[in-house]
Amino acid sequence: xxxxxxxxxxxxxxxxxxxxxxxxxxxxxxxxxxxxxxxxxxxxxxxxxxxxxxxxxxxxxxxxxxxxxxxxxxxxxxxxxxxxxxxxxxxxxxxxxxxxxxxxxxxxxxxxxxxxxxxxxxxxxxxxxxxxxxxxxxxxxxxxxxxxxxxxxxxxxxxxxxxxxxxxxxxxxxxxxxxxxxxxxxxxxxxxxxxxxxxxxxxxxxxxxxxxxxxxxxxxxxxxxxxxxxxxxxxxxxxxxxxxxxxxxxxxxxxxxxxxxxxxxxxxxxxxxxxxxxxxxxxxxxxxxxxxxxxxxxxxxxxxxxxxxxxxxxxxxxxxxxxxxxxxxxxxxxxxxxxxxxxxxxxxxxxxxxxxxxxxxxxxxxxxxxxxxxxxxxxxxxxxxxxxxxxxxxxxxxxxxxxxxxxxxxxxxxxxxxxxxxxxxxxxxxxxxxxxxxxxxxxxxxxxxxxxxxxxxxxxxxxxxxxxxxxxxxxxxxxxxxxxxxxxxxxxxxxxxxxxxxxxxxxxxxxxxxxxxxxxxxxxxxxxxxxxxxxxxxxxxxxxxxxxxxxxxxxxxxxxxxxxxxxxxxxxxxxxxxxxxxxxxxxxxxxxxxxxxxxxxxxxxxxxxxxxxxxxxxxxxxx
Length: 623
Fold this sequence. Notes:
Shape: elongated
Largest sheet: 6 strands, antiparallel
Strand order of the largest sheet: 4-3-5-11-6-9
Protein name: Copper-transporting ATPase HMA5-like isoform X3
């Protein structure tokens, strides 16, 4: 059963399932075994969501019902007593000194105390049966002390013609309502994080195209299968617009993969034979044949989901500290409450304080009892036991709703100690949507005709810069015209350099400086100056040649996100240093840093991914 349950966080199923899968025919079909395995994983994941939903509905219902009873108790005690007409009604005597208001508060607070608040009794019983006192114990003691003292007070008022009752029904009922609100918010925040996990799980495609390849490497068959049936070394075909089914190695084809949902990098990554791809990422163009390397729980996507799930279960250090303190806090509060009652009672017996301190309707015993109960009620763990986990869960939930997956409470708590933040450039400080920001022509030519020629060539390319040029050409033509470009003959795309084609009997070449030099095209001084200027402005310069002559330069820029300078300014005001570590050239990196307000000494350019990680480790070592 290791094959089936080696990486599932649930116990193996009943013996009936084991007997079923001991059948030789079933075991022989490994794909059927994997399908059942994945179904169990899916069941476990959705069972967690269902459990969370039940908890959410439970606390939501309990909180609403507590409001139904607690709000009237609060108003009859704290508000209506100051409204002349209502005050007279509430102070109407029923029996002796027992008033209508006291009867109403008693009747309304009782369901809150014993029906809606039964969760705390159950939690307190379980804790005490295991030999320790938790927050539920203190909540139960505090609310019961306030409730039963109030019952004693109203019963004495009902049997005495002179005793004026002072009840605390609103204290017990509102305290339970506030704690239920906190529990509801905690489950709600956890639900938001779970929604983000569900979205992560949905990144994986439902089906995949499985290829059968002969010994000569020729595809002899292809069929659509459930993606959960993919095994190691299977060859999967991924077409443009579809998602990669599993982690693997490209063995044929070339394309651009959008890995932003996994890596956070918005710019599509070029993938060729020998490159590694990640399951759940989007294939933007081109057909790829991928040899499966990691499947099921081994994929990067599954590991991310598992990481977030474990982060939810982990407690922050401050939360663990609060739990540790609560073991001593509860007995300490009970002891202090008892000592307060005894000390005030003894002080009253020996007349250690003036008799005028005691209300006319009380004696020293009742006064001391009030003080003891007050200590217990005030110490009810709203901050210690409720605020800490709620703050952690709300923080992670808000982060998840904004697309930030926080690795549990420990990471959230450590965030307060951050003194330096490292930014990537593309897709982080910039919007990662290239657009043409300037066009410089060196020959007399109508701009619309110029763009007609280059767009006819670039429309055949799938490069992000080509798409930006075509989009700009569309704007120049106007939306009222049909978007039909002249035919491109002998089109050729040169990877990493540009494109060339014959458009309207003219040889059009669009690309970088190295492409022009390879094609034997001289670059004029004004074009060199234009390229240098674009680099200084954090732009990409694209040369355009028509019939072996450089006609113009296009400046393409990835604009800053509007909020980027403000974010850097706010971080500076918090004494947090900002850095840029990017793979782009130094000129572009420094220009972006200047625009957002980062000093050039905090810029690292032309850095490879592993160098970026090393820079972060270097900064951490300096702390």
